[in-house]
Specification:
By secondary structure, this protein is an alpha/beta fold. It contains twelve helices and ten strands. Helix 4 links the parallel strand 3 and strand 4.
Length: 320
């Protein structure tokens, strides 16, 4: 899990000293679990913390267009009318009923939000959670979503870089000044600062392209891969660690949040024990966090408490 120490430039490393892999609960697929009572996710946060989860993570979409066939990580797993709670708002509600578990986005489509608003919202959430936020970011993949927000799809990656660099300045300096092709300000104050020095750890989502690798080295605390084979995951972690070392950053400080793929029995049902047996393998590949998608393992919200307890118990057995 991300620690609170910092590099001189404000980048927060993720300690590798923990003797176990952390477990992160990905909260999605809400229509099937909660129906019209989506506020149930707030109580889920309390239940997950009590069970012993290390992190709660929420995905992000402001809107969904019809072209889910463009999803870059395989078949789109959710119905078209799936509701998407705004993650930073929802994490603030979860922060109010928890005290230990870390709160994460996975991923926030950062280019859809103006830099100043993003900096203020993130800092506020970090303050209200007393420094428990992990900010996972990505460039997004839906043209329709950007069009509906009146934000250009083209150039979104460069604008995200500008925005996150600006956020780090706003989280550090008061007054703050910054200049880039898409964001600029002079001698402004954006307070309060986040509780975590330098701001919340920034996690980079998606494939480890050259651009994402550069982001990870420049300002990233961790990488969130998706849909990779063991070989590709291990190779990517190795590349990232080498790049950290070449840049003078401690390779042991690299965080990796790897997804746990559901394993199925011969009857087609999800085999929880077989799925959780993958935890030691993912840890051996270099994962520091394993992301468990709640909706892939339970059929209703009433099944969640027992499932969460079982996950933590199975993790404990794997570490003996």
């Amino acid at each position: 899990m991300p620690g609170t120490d910092r590099y001189a430039d404000g980048i927060q490393p993720v300690s590798s000293a923990r003797p176990r892999v952390g477990i992160s609960l990905l909260v999605s697929g809400l229509s099937r679990l909660y129906g019209d009572d989506l506020a149930g996710v707030v109580e889920l946060a309390r239940t997950a913390e009590d069970a012993g989860f290390d992190q709660l993570a929420l995905p992000d979409h402001l809107a969904m267009g019809p072209r889910t066939d463009r999803y870059p990580y395989g078949r789109w797993p959710l119905p078209e009318d799936e509701p998407w709670l705004e993650p930073l708002t929802t994490l603030a509600a979860m922060a109010a009923v928890t005290s230990r578990v870390r709160l994460a986005t996975g991923v926030l489509v950062a280019p859809l939000r103006p830099a100043l608003l993003l900096a203020k919202t993130v800092a506020t959430l970090d303050v209200l959670s007393r420094g428990r936020l992990d900010l996972g970011v990505g460039t997004g993949w839906q043209r329709e979503e950007f069009a509906a927000a009146s934000v250009p799809f083209r150039g979104r990656a460069a604008r995200m870089d500008d925005a996150l660099r600006a956020c780090r300045v706003l989280w550090r300096d008061a007054p703050a000044s910054f200049a880039s092709p898409s964001v600029g300000f002079e001698a402004i104050r954006c307070l309060p600062r986040p509780v975590q020095p330098g701001g919340p750890p920034l996690w980079i989502g998606g494939v480890l392209s050259e651009a994402n690798l550069a982001r990870l080295v420049e300002y990233g605390a961790g990488w969130m891969p998706l849909g990779l084979s063991d070989e590709a995951l291990g190779e990517g972690i190795g590349r990232a660690r080498d790049a950290f070392a070449a840049a003078g950053r401690d390779p042991a400080g690299l965080g990796v949040r790897a997804p746990l793929a559901p394993r199925r029995a011969s009857d087609g049902r999800v085999d929880l024990d077989a799925s959780l047996a993958e935890l030691p393998r993912l840890r051996a590949l270099g994962a520091t966090l394993v992301s468990i998608p709640l909706a892939a393992f339970v059929r209703s919200a009433s099944e969640a408490p027992a499932f969460l307890e079982r996950v933590v118990e199975r993790r404990a057995r794997a570490e003996r």
